[in-house]
Amino acid sequence: MIPLVDLKAQYDSIQTEIDRVIHRVINRTAFIGGEEVEQFEAEFATYCETKACVGVGNGTDALYLTLRAMGIGKGDEVITVAHTFIATAEAISLVGAKPVFVDILESTMLIDPDTIEAAITPNTRAIIAVHLYGQPCEMDRISAIAHKYNLKVIEDAAQAHGAFYQGRRVGSLGDAACFSFYPGKNLGAYGDGGAVVSQNENLIDKIRMLANHGRVEKYTHQIEGTNSRLDSLQAAVLRVKLKHLDNWNARRSHHADYYLTYLNSQVVTLPAVHPETKSVWHLFVVRSLDRDQFQKQLKGKGISTGIHYPIPLHLQPAYAHLGIPKGSLEITEKVASQITSLPMYAELTEQQLSFIVETINFL
Length: 363
Hints:
Aspartate Aminotransferase, domain 1; single chain; 2 domains; 39% helix; 3-stranded antiparallel beta sheet; 7-stranded mixed beta sheet; 363 residues; alpha/beta; Aspartate Aminotransferase, domain 2
């Protein structure tokens, strides 16, 4: 069976490095904070072309803490998409604000900048741009709207580690960017982990304080915070993987080019790439009119697939209280009913790629 993602193959390629740093952390017995976390934060900030980074417990907390540090809360609204993982909207709700969903572009399956202005109200405080599947949103257009209405721009970069828009790294394109290091991500830990990067060092300092029980000294708590810290073991693993990330992303790009070149566009609708972006292809997502049959046939041939994501957030039971009827986000709903994620990871072989393509083309 060709898996959707193969973390064992990745570990096998870096086993010596990973084992060494894990033993180093254990021998030092510095499991919370310390040198590994500090060095990863510095290295990841540099990688993202930003001034500062803070490691946190996971990607959801990264979003939540960023919104909270920006002073967004009860009575406020935040514009985002329904075509994303629930964490994007959860974070908005967790600070007491209201998620406002807008539609996506059918081509890239990312936020449609043309839908944003109509969703802005006097209560709107921010826009969360979700760089889904590894491709950045049209950040120049989004930022122009945000500047016009004095709104914050937060990048949800959980699937876009290392991507570029107009020659600039994801992470450096908004007021702050939030990353997840869930194991299956392009840059994944061996457990949960997350980070926030920004050019605003004061914002990062506030997030750091919020994430560590609102304190700057051990027993002096300036505000009520929470417990959301990136642990040393995960930081050590991430430091090893960060050195390989650009190479792994290049391999993903090669695989995506293969799919785009050889898959029959009469059988599946292929993903579009905006000419000013450089995607890191966290997922390779195609569309088909009969998804169930498509997935069933591929499974029968030994090819794993996924769906990211089958139910848009505005139609989830958790958001029924918003009263958004089916049909409100036409493109989002259409795309969600058709998408299938094909195997995508750096270690895919030419033989596996060829088999996947031939199987799909002859369905």
